[in-house]
Specification:
480 residues, alpha+beta, set domain protein methyltransferase, domain 2, 2 domains, 3-stranded antiparallel β-sheet, 17 helices, 17 strands, SET_dom_sf, SETD3_SETD6_MTase, protein-lysine N-methyltransferase activity, SET_dom
Length: 480
């Protein structure tokens, strides 16, 4: 898209022209400018203090008119006067009504309008020029297959694989939905002269995913200028973004913050995001990051579990568990694990029910009580006399999965960089491997400690037959 020949890639405007565009379109700056930091060229464009800044004095550092905000609401407004945009959004059905779908199609339309050979479709607006200032982000979806192989054993590898599959499905859905629109068939999909390729959809996704921020009263949106700010977490975050009473986007320095002239004005992309998500969505690991912070590990229902098909059918939760740092320790949480560790002898049951339209569906029950949402299972188990036993099963299952992940990362090691692997992906993959390995070791220790505590409880001791329980015969359980 926006090309002079498919191989030349997207046309770009140099960032030093951005202030002219911003001023012409009503963006007001107060003591800041947008451009590269000379001493940090690798960080790309950012927001720089033109003078000494202090606290929240003097009003917003940036004010972006509400009509420039790329949001679901504003795209609806633009579509009322742009029949071509409206036509595509309508053709996409439910996807075109989502925020993500609407924004990606809006960006695609602006990219199409920028093509010098296309003059008979769409309505030009200020944002048509804005996307030319957005650089390509080196997200893992742009890594080569050899570079993605460096992620083996990390939680990022399956996430990137799933994302690429999802993007391909989206791209094909857009192609199928719009192929019958004459101008889309001509400009996007023509076998010889069509401009749109899968790489272009990857770029649109990277634009949105790396720059969308959640604004109060607006939702996920791209806000020109503010979305140029780089990330810093915790006390290092210099400024906050918000909307004012008129719906304009504003950037305000935090109370008590001081920035010298020439310093960088940073925002947070989300302090709770771990190393994996930062690479996935933004293509970097924050300087000085000493922990992966959070990991998502998948777990499977054993194939020899007779209830496996029914469990998979009724499951409404993510099939895995999360380990994360909190309050100086490692904790875990999962809704899915409870469905894995309980069975028919514990009280889990499934029945087939015929619906009013003649179809059949599976209903789940816990001790004769209907379980219409597996998210509620943990609460029911917590009230059961064998709660500590169920906890122990879950802990052992997760500990085994953590051990498996540790062994995988150890086996992979850190391969030497080859000439066909770029330095950026190679360094990021090595950092992520090291950070996740450290977190996994911490998780294993925490789970081992929790297991030891549970083994000492009276409920578990009695269940394992390690203490006398009247004249009852207790069968020892196998927790491996």
């Amino acid at each position: 898209m926006i090309r002079r020949g498919r191989a030349e890639g997207w046309l770009r405007e140099p960032i030093h022209r951005f202030p002219t565009w911003a001023t012409f379109n009503g963006i007001k700056s107060n003591g800041v400018s947008i451009g590269p930091l000379p001493r940090f060229e690798h960080r790309g464009s950012t927001i720089i203090a033109d003078r000494e800044l202090e606290g929240a004095k003097g009003g917003p550092l940036l004010l972006v008119p509400r009509e420039l905000i790329v949001s679901r609401q504003n795209i609806d407004v633009v579509a009322k006067s742009d029949q071509h945009l409206r036509e595509v959004l309508h053709a996409l059905g439910d996807f075109g009504r989502t925020t993500r779908g609407a924004v990606l199609i809006f960006l695609l339309m602006q990219a199409t309008l920028c093509c010098p050979d296309i003059k008979d479709i769409g309505v030009h607006n200020p944002l048509t020029e804005y996307i030319k200032f957005l650089p390509d982000e080196l997200l893992p979806t742009f890594w080569s297959e050899e570079e993605r192989d460096l992620l083996t054993g990390t939680t990022l590898q399956p996430a990137v694989r799933a994302k690429l599959n999802s993007l391909l499905r989206e791209f094909e859905a857009v192609r199928v939905a719009t192929a019958g629109i004459s101008w889309c068939a001509k400009y996007w999909w023509d076998e010889d002269d069509g401009l749109l390729a899968f790489d272009d959809w990857l770029r649109l996704d990277a634009m949105y995913r790396s720059r969308a921020l959640e604004f109060p009263n607006v939702g996920d949106a791209m806000v020109p200028g503010i979305d140029m700010a780089n990330h810093a977490s915790g006390d290092a975050t210099a400024a906050l973004y918000d909307t004012d009473e008129s719906g304009n986007g504003v950037l305000v320095l935090r109370d008590g913050k001081e920035i010298r002239e020439g310093g960088e004005v940073t925002i947070t992309y989300g302090d709770e995001k771990g190393a994996c998500e930062n690479i996935f969505s933004y293509g970097f690991i924050e300087d000085g990051m000493s922990s992966a912070q959070i990991m998502l590990l998948d777990i499977n229902i054993p194939h020899d579990d007779p209830l496996r098909p029914a469990k998979l059918y009724v499951n409404t939760t993510a099939p895995g568990f999360r380990v994360f740092e909190k309050e100086g320790g490692i904790q875990w949480e999962s809704d899915f694990v409870w469905l894995v560790v309980v069975n028919e002898e514990d009280g889990l049951d499934f029945k087939v029910k015929q619906t009013v339209d003649g179809n059949k569906e599976i209903q789940s029950f816990w001790k004769e009580q209907e379980l219409n949402d597996t998210l509620k299972l943990r609460g029911l188990l917590k009230e059961d006399p064998l709660w500590e036993v169920f906890q122990l099963r879950a802990v052992v299952l997760m500990q085994n999965r953590v051990d498996e992940q540790i062994e995988t990362l150890r086996a992979v090691g850190r391969p030497e960089r080859t000439d066909t692997v770029r330095e950026g992906p190679w360094k990021l993959a090595a950092q992520l491997c090291a950070l996740e390995l450290d977190l996994l070791h911490g998780a294993r220790s925490a789970l081992e400690s929790e297991k030891a505590t549970l083994l000492e409880t009276e409920t578990v001791q009695r269940y394992l037959g390690l203490v006398e329980d009247g004249d009852e015969d207790v069968e020892e359980a196998d927790f491996t």
